[in-house]
Amino acid sequence: MTEKDNIILTSWLTKASHDLRNAEIILNQNESNLPFDTVCFHCQQTGEKYLKAYLIYLDLDFPFTHNLADLITKAATLDKDIESLIYEAEQLTPYAVEIRYPDDYFNPTSEEAKEAFFIANKIKDYILIRIQPNSKA
């Protein structure tokens, strides 16, 4: 991996961690009527950015998509084990666009937001275990 590729990879990982942190901050509030739609959006973005970072790490081009299953399928060409995440990741995909606009507006429940957060962390953990400094020649 070139230094430039490493910088790009690090940038994707940083942005992904920022999305996850934003979701966590909201979930940790002791208020009622929290913006769970925003939590779910940030969780989808977390998954998408970690998956795109992993594709960069694997030296695979990725399509312009918010569909996490498509990104996992692409990564599975070099890492079959990642397919174990596809069902859960598909649950995050609708939070990419549909949830952001009032046309299709719905506010997820606290339970749905917590599940999205769990899935985002699962994707993060899967990928960070595999992306280790100097682990790819």
Could you list some keywords that capture this structure?
Four Helix Bundle (Hemerythrin (Met), subunit A); mainly alpha; single chain; 137 residues
Structural features, described:
The relative contact order is 0.18. The chain has one domain: Four Helix Bundle (Hemerythrin (Met), subunit A) (Up-down Bundle), CATH 1.20.120.330. The protein is globular. With 137 residues, the chain is mainly α.
Summarize the structure.
With 137 residues, the chain is mainly alpha-helical. It has helices at 3-27, 36-57, 68-75, 86-92, 110-130.
Task: Note the topology.
Elements: H1 3-27, H2 36-57, H3 68-75, H4 86-92, H5 110-130
Order of helices and strands: HHHHH
Percent range for helical residues? Answer: 55-70%
Structural class: mainly alpha
Tally of DSSP helical segments: 5
Per the CATH scheme, the topology name is Four Helix Bundle (Hemerythrin (Met), subunit A)
User: CATH homologous superfamily, by name?
Assistant: Nucleotidyltransferases  domain 2
Based on Cα principal axes, name the global outline. globular
- Average predicted confidence as pLDDT: 90
Total DSSP E strands: 0
Biggest sheet character: none
Based on CA atoms alone, the radius of gyration comes out at: 15 Å
Total domain units: 1
